[in-house]
Amino acid sequence: MRLYVSPTSPYARLACVMCLEARLEGLEIVILDPWQNPPELLNHNPACRVPALVVDDGDGNDPLAITESLLIADFAARRSGESDRLWFKDDSERQIGGICLGIIDAAAAIMAGRMVTSGSVNEIAFDSSLVARRRQAAIQRSLDRMEALLGARDEALGAQPGIAAFLPVIVVEYLQMRFGSAFESADRSQLASLVATLRDRPALASTRPLFTKFIPYDGAAAQ
């Protein structure tokens, strides 16, 4: 079983964290750069995007490739035997998850705009455009909404963490990597508390943006 990821993609990180938490047997994590159109990734995902999970049933059939982060996360949760913990437990958690994914989409759109404008995600000329400013405003509003939604749920999410708890950490650390302190706010204490509680959990600590290797570990769900 191989999971193709890049060291910066928040979508790939979500899939990676969920697969690690699920302790999928025989999991191999392959780190690559999808912008280089690597043949191995293209062979399994014609869109040449990460994440992509390739599953071999061992019976001689062609490997099955599962793409898109939520579908891989769902696969991992169902295979884990701990789907009640790892997957969304109720509609309130789904609401938090939706806001997180919206933030990731908005941030990724800004990165795509930078690439189109200058050929580099580090060149920020695009950020002053109307499109980018709208995405930035959406991110700020969404972070404030997530703070309000976490409220009393912060402690519960941290106690039995699943996808709804992992996503806020992935969001915050991706924004920090790409935008520095631009989206930080002292008024979001609930969000800061959740991130502080979970950021050193092995599945999250070992997949922090720009990780360059993967060190297997046991007992992810218990730590």
TrEMBL record:
Residues 1-84 form the GST N-terminal domain. Signal peptide: none annotated. InterPro entries: Glutathione_S-Trfase_N, Thioredoxin-like_sf. This is GST N-terminal domain-containing protein. It comes from Microvirga arsenatis.
